[in-house]
Amino acid sequence: MNNDILYILSEEGSLKFKQELANAENMSRVSSNVANLEEAHNELYHNKLYLIDTELRNPVYSKHQRETMKTYRDELNKVIGLLQRRLDALMSYDPNASGGRRKSRRRSRRRKSSRRKTGRRKRIY
Description:
With 125 residues, the chain is mostly helical. The protein has helices at residues 3-9, 11-30, 34-56, 63-91.
């Protein structure tokens, strides 16, 4: 049994783990700092996900503990995917690509045809 996994499965560790996931998810939505995003991605992927995957196969844990680890693994995969998509979007930023900034073009109120109304005057008798 791994002490890090036992801590994550404890009440305090579970709350801390969920808070880390929430922070990483918020970071993936608002941050544009590539270095911070890569650091969070690597921490979650290499340390947390790898640890949970290796310990999930360990038969020492109870069924409930393994189900909890599977749930955490799924949540980790979701957040890691969000971070990866954000990193990909920032690394290949193209202003003309979808999702990038687009210039809005206002339509003029003038008629485009050649038959413009040219100040017709009423006849005065």
